[in-house]
């Protein structure tokens, strides 16, 4: 087992943790452990793929028509003789 120390926990959070622990009949340490287990057991699966999310975010702004330059034949590579 590993030990974890939480520093700089504000008084309000500590008070709420204490109240929640008392409501559940646990110590503050047991309650913090239960909260961590619950939070870590949740599957965090993105509902959309990145490309879809970006598209949906910018869709309200409309599209942009870009001028595509004509393609020219490739030039000869430089000679380093």
Reconstruct the topology from this structure:
Blueprint: H1 11-23, H2 28-41, H3 50-58
Helix pairs in contact: 1-2
Short note summarizing the structure:
The protein is an all-alpha fold and 81 residues long. The protein has helices at 11-23, 28-41, 50-58. The protein has three helices and no strands.
Walk me through the structure.
- There is one protein chain.
- With about 80 residues, the chain is mainly alpha-helical.
- The chain is built from three helices and no strands.
- The longest helix has 14 residues, at about 30-40.
- The chain is elongated, with a radius of gyration of 28 Å.
- The N and C termini lie far apart (about 65 Å).
Order of helices and strands: HHH
Query: Helical segment tally?
Result: 3
Helix content: 40-55%
Structural class: mainly alpha
Q: Which parts are unreliable, with pLDDT below 50 for 5 consecutive residues or more?
A: none
Q: Kindly report the oligomeric state of this protein.
A: single chain
Strand content: under 5%
Can you count the beta strands?
Answer: 0
Radius of gyration: 28 Å
Largest sheet: none
């Amino acid at each position: 087992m590993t030990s974890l120390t939480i520093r700089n926990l504000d008084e309000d959070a500590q008070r709420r943790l204490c109240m929640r622990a008392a409501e559940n009949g646990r110590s503050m340490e047991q309650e913090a452990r239960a909260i961590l287990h619950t939070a870590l057991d949740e599957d965090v699966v993105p509902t959309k793929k990145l490309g879809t999310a970006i598209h949906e975010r910018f869709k309200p702004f409309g599209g942009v028509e870009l001028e595509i330059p004509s393609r020219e034949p490739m030039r000869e590579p430089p000679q380093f003789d």
